[in-house]
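Two records follow; treat each independently.
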Amino acid sequence: MEHILINCTPREVRVAIVVDGVLQDLFIERDCARGLVGNVYLGKVVRVLPGMQSAFVDVGLERTAFLHVADIAEAHCEGEKPAPIETILHEGQSLMVQVAKDPIGTKGARLTTTVSLAGRKLVYLPRDNHIGVSQRIEDAELRESLRAMMTELRPETEKGGYIIRTSAEEGATEQEFKDDMAYLGRLWTDIHELAGRSTGPKLLYQDLSLAQRVLRDMVHQDTQTVEVDSRENYEALLNFASRFVPAAKDRLTLYRGERPLFELHGIETEIEHALERRVDLKSGGYLVFDQTEAMTTIDVNTGGYVGKRDFSDTVFKTNLEAAQTIARQLRLRNLGGIIIVDFIDMSCDEHREAVLAELRRSVSTDRTRMTVSNFTELGLVEMTRKRTRESLAHVLCEPCPMCGGRGEVRTARTVCYSIMREIVRLCKQYQETKEFHIQASQTVIDMLLEEESQALELLQAFVEKPVHLEVEPSYTQEQFDVILA
């Protein structure tokens, strides 16, 4: 039983996918930071780097975008190595590109010259003649029948290829394929004509909004309802569904309740939990998530769970539950890149294999491409999850102004000693100083007046100058000023 909830505010849209009452996926799109993946631009090459076989392309964004030779269709010939990038591109060259990965952190968007336009059942490849089938459609007989249908429908004179999307697995008619082909053909013609009369950098095509993409890509036969809490957006989505996704139209409903939609279904609480380091398990164990620039680490602990049999059984059950929770949390937090999981040590090989199998089963439903390795010699499981957009924490949060993102602040005593060292340094440098005025937070001043009062007296005797203390309410614990008088 799957339900899709769409919460709309003037500048933000949030989508929650709830399966059997449990939040499984969360998407957030803000007008000021709308995702770029799928957008098509006419860009201008600003720099070619032969040593990296890459180029920087100006597409009109805040940072120049990145194009690797592997993502340049013209660089590849069947059975041959890619041509050197310097023989294909030159500075100042105009180039039609599509965003394959959003800007993340300090990195610009990643581009490709292989443009693809997504419809309901098909993805159109205007620069390729290949007809493919989504890898998620596993039935070999169905794959061949869909491919044969598409081959017959495509005119021999038509340029361009198609990929049959996973949504076709639930039943795709010839008319649906024809409708998609007509729509995508018109869309490509518009893009191509606009590029012909434009100079870069220029946006040629912007992908659908989050709510529209949800209707196009995520509504399937198991979806019971799609609830929208905004009348204006509901009517817009109804019109969109009528034109492009008829199957989703009957599932659309307008939420009229007094309580906020996300609050009613407990989504707000789930979002708060997804921003915390610690995630409690029902059994009493817990997980600890630490996200760094290079990777994300997940530590599994038994916590208060003592089990009913022996210790190995307790560890096994905790690790099994952790495997299921980890898969869900990776989706909710949208964690990508390298992920290291430190399960509780298991001596039994059967238990290790069962936990690994459960982890692979749990992540198999993830829409984002993932790989899961075996246990390493140190008992760790290494995973990778394709990183296409910022994590939930990076979207909703910013580094703490108190600690600068470290997660810790220097103790008041440490700051006191820093102040004392600074006074000694300044005393030697400015010998004509008559007295020192210290401005610091309340906790630091209290420490200097109480527990470190004797050290302060010794300092004043050493520098032979008085030291005056003043509380600055706006200062964090680590901030202080030493003023010379």
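The next record belongs to a different protein.
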Amino acid sequence: MDQPRIPPGQTLTTGLPVLDLGLRPDLRPENWSLALFGLVEQELRLDWDHFQSLPREARCSDFHCVTHWSRLDAQWEGVAAKTLIALARPLADARFVTLHGADGYTTNLPLEALLDPDVLLADGLDGGPLADAHGGPVRLVVPRRYAWKSAKWLVGLEFHAEDRPGYWEVRGYHNDADPWKEERYAE
């Protein structure tokens, strides 16, 4: 029997609703950069040209939001998170990552979650550049988690030993955010 593609409690949408903190940073490829720092052998700051020179990947994935909508078959393009992580070479005690958005937003993930083969730092969606409203020029895409873990306007990956809950997690959202388990809010 085929497994359903829409998690419990979700409703299908064909668009990609726009949700954010209400702060849209003025980011364009020419003023964007990405820092990888913390418990790594090689701290990095990549500008747009360096990011674009890395191996590119395209992924078709389903995208689920804690606000009960799911978008199937989103066509993302970008750089695999594992490619960037390999460049920074996390130290052995780096087990967690804080994702930093240019709007001050943060979220957290175990390092192992970022190493999943479907996790992208996306700069493209559905055949075009990633729009500002959807987190452009670059956002994280973590298909196996609710969308709040897919930080928009991504400008930093901070590696550390302990877990550090982010913006929504300290406000009562579940730390793991698995849509199949309906991990929307903390107990």
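Discussion point: The chain has three helices and eleven strands. How would you locate this feature using only the token line?
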